[in-house]
Please model this.
Amino acid sequence: MVFIDLDGTLQLNPFERAVWPQVVGEMAQKSGLSGADILQMIEDENNARQRDDNIPAILAMDMDDISLTVAKRLGVSITTSVTELVNTYAKSHSTLLEYALESLQELAAPHRAIVIATKGLAKYQLQVMDALGITPLVTDTLTPDTHNGLKKHRHFFGDWPEQAKLSIMVGDLYDDDVLYPSGHGFKTLWKPRATLIPDSLYHLDPFTRAEEFPYGPEQTVHPTGIMHSLRELPAAVTYLEQHSL
Ligand SMILES: [Mg+2]
Model:
């Protein structure tokens, strides 16, 4: 089976281009702080919540609650709601990444479950997936709401891995999509930002590329494969299925 991340892997969501500019804009106007500083506070709060194991995963990723918390810290009140803005801009301000739908279509096979594994809450993600046409192409969708977990938690993935002969995680973030899933025993196909892959590795296959990649000193766990494009995904999955069982 294949777990696939959403944001930065299959799609770009409306947060950067529509939701944050309005929410942060209102807070900036009312507090006098710069938008960049406020966005940083939101990010810091989100990261701190994810690191704190006493905070439920659902609350750690609740951008409505995080925005209200930061606004309160700044002594302002906000009228813009993250959830409402995501609903408004789900279609107009989200984008499919190159070859997203095509790779899902190519992966479709009776023996293979294709499960979205995203750290975004269902209330932010499902309508974007619907708007972009991703939903009908996948078997299931896991969000932090599903089992109140993050990707670092094995329970995030429910009992899918036990049912599968082989679990493969596909995504763009090193920690969430390579480090933690490797710890759960999954194979991993990493699609880092294109600028991170040296030109000299471009012509290699994903598995050789993963061997040659210049990892950072903290990146001690290496992915099974590294892709520069989703065009490489179907063949890489098929290869792993044929060689890992
Ligand atoms: Mg991602």
User: Anything to note?
Assistant: Residues 2-13+94-244 form a domain with the Rossmann fold fold (CATH 3.40.50.1000). The first helix runs from residue 15 to 31. The pocket of magnesium ion is lined by residues 5, 7-9, 171-173 (CB under 6 Å).
